[in-house]
């Protein structure tokens, strides 16, 4: 019998405030649009829009922002059975985005003492996790205790219950104390995961080196649990390495780029969905890349997530020029 959820995502759900006036620095930006944000929340929302059955585990502020995030997740068909509210006054994170040009974007984070990093191990329920085929773990949730222990508990429960772990490295510097901690906790979880997804820079953080080699990173992980390793290179595309030795190249689709952020989350949402629908890895890379190409042309990361028809239409439209 199939389980209630295709995957449960664990980590942060927060608020994005995206510059309405763009092609200018933050100092000259006066208006911002509010969206739900936070990489794992974006992935959950994107996959739900593609028809996946998705749940979420995370901690929100007990205030208007937290209530907004919870209802947006619910309206997006993401189950919030694993969502809790912070009783100690910690606030949900805010991400102000600056769009100086399509290539030059940055995010100004307000995440001091942020609610999502106060998720405790007691708040991760085995009963809830048992309902899922897979667990999508966001690396940022490993940055601080008690969220770190909550994630390690979820990973251990996933192992006990035969739940596949998909690790999105999702490295955000602001919450980590030092690179050694990143390398320790990323390696710990990556070794236990079936699928590891990250950018080249994020794999370098995990390996605590500079300018690492994709093949070497994948081969190292294949000594442990991983069966599939995805390494992303921005507009240059991405590579998928399978434990059986096969390597696939994914290419970026042409896009009328508005901003760069949101690419990784939309890519993960569609890639995971395609794999879960039984598509071969090289096809799944096309879904991920097409989804990202659509989101970078739009204003938000969550609200802008495409549906299956939009992704498939783009793949079809650019089939001749793909990879050229
Ligand atoms: N400018 C772009 N135009 C079209 N597709 C893009 C562009 N940038 C990225 N992509 C697609 O998105 C995928 C993921 O992008 P990237 O490697 O930048 O991930 P990321 O750093 O996790 O993204 P983010 O900027 O959201 O943190 C790429 O492999 C590519 O297919
Ligand atoms: O992940 C975050 O905390 C911020 C995101 O919500 C933002 O939209 C983004 O950077 C997506 O890549």
TrEMBL record:
Pathway: Polyol metabolism; myo-inositol degradation into acetyl-CoA; acetyl-CoA from myo-inositol: step 5/7. It comes from the Bacteria. It holds the Pfam family PfkB. The keyword Lipid biosynthesis does not apply. One of its GO terms (biological process) is inositol catabolic process. Residues 8-306 form the Carbohydrate kinase PfkB domain. Keywords: ATP-binding, Kinase, Nucleotide-binding, Transferase. Its EC number is 2.7.1.92. It catalyses: 5-dehydro-2-deoxy-D-gluconate + ATP = 6-phospho-5-dehydro-2-deoxy-D-gluconate + ADP + H(+). GO terms for molecular function: 5-dehydro-2-deoxygluconokinase activity; ATP binding. PROSITE patterns: PFKB_KINASES_2. It is an enzyme of class 2 (transferase). SUPFAM superfamilies: Ribokinase-like. HAMAP family: IolC. Belongs to the carbohydrate kinase PfkB family. NCBIfam families: myo_inos_iolC_N (TIGR04382). Catalyzes the phosphorylation of 5-dehydro-2-deoxy-D-gluconate (2-deoxy-5-keto-D-gluconate or DKG) to 6-phospho-5-dehydro-2-deoxy-D-gluconate (DKGP). This is 5-dehydro-2-deoxygluconokinase. It comes from Vagococcus intermedius.
